[in-house]
Amino acid sequence: MAEVQQAWAVHYEGKLLHELKARITALEHFAHECMENLRACADNYPSAMEKRVIVEHLRDAAVDLGVLSDELKGKLTALDNAISRCVEKAPFCWSENVQAAYPQPKFWFLYMAARKPPPKK
């Protein structure tokens, strides 16, 4: 992989940034849907956080290559702010078997769940 990264550096960086932007956009849609429907958010939260984990790894790769723009940093901060408005603290949302690989400070969103919707009147 390192050889491919070196040989195709510009292409690799472009693909990395394209994937990062696309996944952030998909998660922005999820966060917007959560604000409108907490019940649906709860059902989809664990699988959506798989995308957020991928975004975190792509972000790390972009930082390592020095290609993470201020614009993308801002989009990621806004995304996390939107997600945080729809969640509350909860046990790790995936299997305990993988929990050690995802420490809470970095992967805070895996230690959350969608807020419960207000009771119907």
What does this structure look like?
This protein has 121 residues and is mainly alpha-helical. It has one domain. It has four helices and two strands. Strands 1-2 form a two-stranded antiparallel sheet. α2 runs antiparallel to α3. The longest helix has 28 residues. The protein is elongated. The mean pLDDT is 92.
Mean pLDDT: 92
Instruction: Give the overall shape, derived from the CA principal axes.
Output: elongated
Taking all Cα atoms into account, the compactness measure Rg is: 16 Å
Sheet of most strands: 2 strands, antiparallel
What separation lies between the terminal Cα atoms? 57 Å
Proportion of beta-strand residues: under 5%
Total domains: 1
Strand tally, please? Answer: 2
Order of SSEs, N→C?
A: HHHHEE
Which class of secondary structure composition applies to the elements?
mainly alpha
Q: In percent, how helical is the residue content? A: 55-70%
Unreliable segments of 5+ consecutive residues: none
Q: Provide the spatial order of strands within the biggest beta sheet.
A: 1-2
Secondary structure tally, helices? 4
Brief sketch in words of this structure:
The protein is mainly alpha-helical and 121 residues long.
Question: What topology emerges from the helices and strands here?
Answer:
Layout: H1 2-7, H2 9-36, H3 38-65, H4 70-84, E1 87-89, E2 112-114
Antiparallel strand pairs: 1-2
Helix pairs in contact: 2-3, 2-4
